[in-house]
Specification:
single chain; alpha+beta; 15 helices
Length: 457
């Protein structure tokens, strides 16, 4: 997965969260204790929904990065999120806007924490950052993840071809700038390179950039911070290394010449302050710090992946992972989908877990719907056939050993037409199939010329 794509998809998840959060906060009176308390469970459930999406996106990034070193990613279970986290935000916020910014940070941080927690003996932010639920994940008194390296971890291959590769942990993680909203604080941290989670990993690499003092700084993310956290499986080849090398060179030059109180700076915090001062002075002079942006980091890899996608489905704007093998009818659907102004990020349905087998997955993320996980089904224009296909998909995914939620569906009728009778029958799907309810249903019909949403009753 290219970092540009990862940043875009994570941004889409946050944007979708914001769209649901805004109306939920509209009637919140923070001065009314009853309104305050009633809103907490609802807001927490909303945050949990999008934190899971962010964490699963990070899992996919780790799977693809691990594949580059010939392994399957070992990933932890998705972290819990307690109602108390929302209660703390509401208690300490002065405005609705501040509440929104803080909860957006909690969603984005789920992706960061998933990467950091994938490392043995991880150094993670304090529990107060997102306040994980104690019954879903153990934390010590400092808020650090507790447990043996393999407890609850699962091997996640990037594709079917990698399922026989050895399972591997990242040796560390690094902060990467997106080039969109980077303050001096974030730039300093990105210059430091990989964070090594244990003495064993730190001593097994050539990098000596990271010091104990810097670790606590790296765990901080301000509101509106759009820095990415990426896994490092190879200290000499990781996503963002070119950017980090450039920033670190500037950092060394600045702090080598810096003095404080007439003495050369040697302490880590003083160096961080000196570099921050340098960036501030640069901005005052109307200049900008030059460093590789994400699109430059991924230029070579992007060209290779683009060639693969074009070969598979020429002319499409939708993103198709190299490991995904689309059927002809799926490619045709995407062509018609894009004619209607829609785009998709196809999901490579090839994740195999030991003892579980191939896990279920939705077919694609619908970009214009906020990266909404969506299931595609082809069918003739007969209600019983469509209803059975939807119900089987919902129930099968829900009852699987590795449960997956399938709640958004697109039915492609091909050349068949959607008549009024079928439209009415589909609107009653949730009433007729209460054990397999869905959230949204769209139908493409008449050779793709028409694409409409069914209003479910």
């Amino acid at each position: 997965m290219l970092l540009d794509m990862f940043a875009t998809l994570l941004g889409s998840i946050v944007q979708a969260f914001r769209q649901e959060l805004t109306p939920a906060l509209r009637d919140l009176d923070m001065a009314d204790s009853e309104s305050f308390e009633e809103s907490v469970p609802m807001l927490a459930a909303l945050v949990r929904k999008y934190r899971r999406q962010a964490a699963e996106l990070a899992n996919q990034l780790m799977a693809e990065e691990a594949a580059k070193v010939g392994g399957q990613a070992l990933i932890p279970p998705v972290e819990g999120y307690a109602d108390q986290a929302v209660h703390e935000v509401l208690t300490h916020s002065r405005s609705i806007d501040q509440v929104s910014r803080s909860l957006e940070r909690h969603v984005r941080t789920a992706a960061r924490r998933q990467v950091v927690r994938s490392i043995p003996d991880p150094v993670v932010p304090p529990a107060s950052e997102t306040n994980p639920s104690a019954d879903e994940i153990d934390v010590d008194e400092d808020g650090n993840f507790v447990g043996e390296a393999g407890d609850g971890f699962e091997a996640l291959p990037a594709s079917k071809r990698e399922r026989e590769q050895p399972a591997v942990y990242p040796i560390g993680w690094a902060r990467v700038l997106t080039g969109k909203d980077n303050c001096a604080f974030c730039i300093v941290l990105a210059s430091r390179g990989p964070v090594y989670s244990s003495q064993h990993h730190a001593s097994s690499t050539s990098s000596k950039r990271w010091d104990k003092e810097g670790r606590q700084w790296a765990n901080s993310y301000h509101d509106n911070c759009d820095c990415l956290v990426v896994p490092v499986y190879d200290s000499e080849n990781w996503a963002g290394k070119a950017q980090s090398d450039k920033l670190y060179k500037i950092y060394e030059e600045v702090t080598r010449e810096a003095v404080a109180g007439g003495k050369n700076i040697t302490e880590g915090n003083d160096k961080l302050k000196a570099f921050s001062d340098y960036l501030r002075d640069l901005k005052k002079d109307g200049k900008e710090l030059e460093y590789p942006a994400l699109n430059e980091l991924d230029k070579a890899q992007g060209a290779a992946e683009k060639d693969k996608k074009v070969a598979q489905a020429p002319g499409l704007k939708s993103v198709i992972p190299p490991s995904a093998e689309l059927e002809p009818h799926e490619v045709e659907f995407l062509k018609r989908f894009e004619v209607h102004g829609q785009t998709a990020h196809w999901i490579a349905n090839d994740t195999v877990l030991p003892g579980v087998g191939l896990i279920p997955a939705n077919d694609f993320h619908w970009v214009e719907k906020g990266h909404q996980a969506t299931e595609l089904k082809t069918s003739k224009n007969k209600y019983s056939t469509i209803a059975t296909r939807i119900r089987d998909a919902v129930v099968g995914a829900k009852n699987h050993a590795h449960p997956v939620v399938k709640e958004h569906f697109v039915i492609d009728l091909g050349y068949h037409k959607l008549n009024d009778k079928l439209r009415y029958q589909l609107s009653e799907y949730n009433l007729r199939k209460p054990d397999a309810k869905i959230t949204s249903l769209w139908v493409m019909h008449s050779e793709g010329e028409l694409f409409e949403e069914i209003i479910l009753r």
